[in-house]
Q: What sequence folds into this?
């Protein structure tokens, strides 16, 4: 029983970390797009 609980907790931790990584990646992509957009506006 205890082992199953620990296994479930580990699975949740891994899933949470993967989701956090995806969110961080999306946040970085949005920031890069924003910077590129700002640079294009300056050139126009």
A:
């Amino acid at each position: 029983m205890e082992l199953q609980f620990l296994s479930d907790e580990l699975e949740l931790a891994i899933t949470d970390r993967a989701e956090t990584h995806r969110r961080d990646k999306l946040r970085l992509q949005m920031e890069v797009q924003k910077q590129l957009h700002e640079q294009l506006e300056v050139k126009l």
About this structure: Residues 2-43 form the longest helix (42 residues). The mean pLDDT is 89. The helical segments are 2-43.
